[in-house]
Amino acid sequence: MNFTRWSARLPGTQRRAAARTEQAVAATPRGDGSVPAARAERPSDGAETGPPDGAVGLAGLDELPAREVLDRIPALVALVHGADHRIAYVNDAYVAAFGPRPVGEPARVALPELDELSLLPLLDQVLRSAKPRTVKSRKAPSGRSYTFTCTPVTLPLGGSAAGPEEGGGVLVFAADVTDHAEAAERLRTSERAQRETAVTLQKSLLPQELEQPDDLRIAATYQPGGTEAAVGGDWYDVITLGGGRTALVIGDVMGRGVRAAAVMGQLRTAVRAYARLDLPPHEVLQLLDGLAAEIDASQIATCVYAVHDPNEGSLVYASAGHLPILVRDENGTIHRAEEPTGPPLGTGGWLHTSGSVPLGPGSTAVLYTDGLVERRSEDIDEGVSSLERALAGATGTPQVVCDRLIRALGVAADHDDDVAVMVVQHPARTGTNAELFRNAALELLGGVEAAPRARAFATGVLASWRFSPELHDLGVLAASELVANSLQHGTPPMRLRLRRTDRRLIIEVTDGDDHLPRRRRAEPADEAGRGIAIVATIASNWGSRRTPGGGKAVWCEFALPK
């Protein structure tokens, strides 16, 4: 038996100690020329010393100096031989761990602990292949954990010649790794607790229910990464801006764990606050850029902020290092909104700009984070292309499209990154449903005739839309006051626009002056200054914003009775 082959499998100091012990034993003569019998096979006084019935005699085993070494090492050692793995030897450590084992008995009967640990098939494999195998950190019935190394050995047999398997054996070496296993389990438990905390925080900071604007149908999905992946800072939001316009936001904090989720929550809150200012998308990102650096200079975030205007049939957006929005138009053609884009939030020193992509009736837009399309084995552009192909064939409600895209991109429960997806549909309306969505506009050239023309136009349009007399009169009054305010404080060109949806009536006046009106208290002697106050009193909501080409828009809304 080659002890060098055995010692090569012993870990660390045990291997070196075993080598030194072998040398010492080899140099020390013994009176009887043999070593002590194995603990499992030491006979009592007067008992027979031959092998039990069914055992195979192993010639010269007692003369091997390795026996003395194996009896003393703290690791568990067992030696089995033959096709049914009959026990040839177990050392003291093995006996202390599992109790005495009878020599000559098959392992399936005499070594039940190996059977419970599913090591018997491994013994068969080692015996057949003559190659060593190792299994790490198996917990025994006693509660201790061991790493088992099974090494093939060649044993000299007494009697007639035997086949390869009969003459072969397997040395089972088990190192106690209980302390390491328990430390690893404590670490995994701590990591699971931290991950659960991060997931809970992440989900609590995401919108529990998406706002549903009049003109769009929206669904979003967030899926955290698998148990081995740390949770990131993906987020999304939908913000109704008034006047029929809707802001769509999706972003990703470049970090992991609770800190990333906390930064995400602060950015999402800031986006909602900035959105109320009704600024262009690039100005919102400019404000977020400075805020991100103040929150945590070591973390950056990507973000897309887009605004949908049903009157324009477009999606105006700005991107801070985020992946492009994908839009499938009513003909099924996929458009990728790639430009313009700037660096991520928190880097500073960059002036963001806005771009536009059509989003008319019948179109579907997809906003997403990199976890959906990024794979270690391929370029991210390949992932975006795969998403385009999946979007081309995905139909149904926004939630159905979300689920289909996630399945098509192979995102499973064990995915290595978290994923956020938002699907936005601008449905095409026909028949009676189309009657609920109407638009009407009048160009105003200014002058004394502008106000009467606006009142007459609003009166006719609202009457044709069959509103109640009360709502009709309130709408005409609001249109008249907004036009009068624009004539007094604005500049041409001017436009009056009326829009109705299934939920509200929207009245908007635009002009060429970018000075935004504000509500103020007029003094009793003032002859003007009450127009915006009147509108704010009679309408459900009102607001103003600067338009991209210069000038401003002032609007108000009336909720329709259900």
Key phrases:
disordered N terminus, 20 strands, 5-stranded antiparallel beta sheet
* Morphology: elongated
Mean pLDDT across residues: 82
Largest sheet: 5 strands, antiparallel
Fraction in helix: 25-40%
Give the oligomeric state.
single chain
Report low-confidence residues grouped into runs of 5 or more.
1-57, 158-165
Count of DSSP H/I helices: 17
What is the beta-strand fraction? Answer: 25-35%
What do these coordinates show?
This protein is an alpha+beta fold and 562 residues long. It is 34% helix and 25% strand. It is built from 17 helices and 20 strands. The protein has helices at 3-7, 12-27, 66-72, 92-98, 107-110, 112-116, 120-129, 164-167, 178-205, 257-275, 281-295, 380-393, 398-408, 432-435, 450-464, 469-489, 531-538, and strands at residues 76-81, 86-90, 133-139, 145-154, 168-176, 217-223, 233-242, 245-253, 301-309, 314-320, 325-328, 334-337, 355-358, 363-368, 419-426, 438-444, 494-500, 504-511, 541-546, 552-559. The strands form four sheets. Strands 2-1-5-4-3 form a five-stranded antiparallel β-sheet. The protein has a five-stranded antiparallel β-sheet with strand order 6-15-14-11-12. The chain has a five-stranded antiparallel β-sheet with strand order 7-8-9-10-13, with helices on one face. A hairpin with a 2-residue loop joins β7 (233-242) and β8 (245-253). α2 packs across α3 and α12 (380-393) crosses α13. The N and C termini lie far apart (92 Å). Mean pLDDT is 82; it is low at 1-57 and 158-165.
Short description, anyone?
By secondary structure, this protein is of the alpha+beta class. It has helices at residues 3-7, 12-27, 66-72, 92-98, 107-110, 112-116, 120-129, 164-167, 178-205, 257-275, 281-295, 380-393, 398-408, 432-435, 450-464, 469-489, 531-538; strands spanning 76-81, 86-90, 133-139, 145-154, 168-176, 217-223, 233-242, 245-253, 301-309, 314-320, 325-328, 334-337, 355-358, 363-368, 419-426, 438-444, 494-500, 504-511, 541-546, 552-559.
